[in-house]
Amino acid sequence: MFYREAGQFKTTYEADQSLFPLKEDRLGLSVIVAIAFVVIPFLATDFFLTSAMTPFLIFALAAIRLNVLTAYAGQLSLGIGAFMGVGSYSAYRLT
User: Fold this and answer.
1) Residues 46-71: pLDDT tens digits?
2) Are 69 and 80 in contact, with CB atoms under 8 Å apart?
3) Where are the domains of the chain?
4) Are 80 and 62 within 8 A, CB to CB?
5) Which residues contact 75 (CB under 8 A, 6 or more apart)?
6) Can you give the pTM of this predicted structure?
7) Which end of the chain has a smaller Cβ tally under 10 Å, C or N?
């Protein structure tokens, strides 16, 4: 994020190890979840959901998977690209 944790001190080990330790993180996540579950389903058209949101969700899932693998596990795998390539080719051939 673009801000620092100045002035938000932790007094317990649980608070230090929490997933979203800052109030700004919790507020931002709640806004994103509200938009994702309230605004988009009611205002989006079928064209928008199939043409824009489906590729966005696929690439977001690939980015999260790569982040978990390289950042948290410390491993490098080229198999992610291979699986996405095989999946996209098979989806093309099946349609």
Assistant:
1) 898 888 888 888 888 888 888 888 87
2) yes
3) 13-43, 46-95
4) yes
5) 69
6) 0.54
7) C
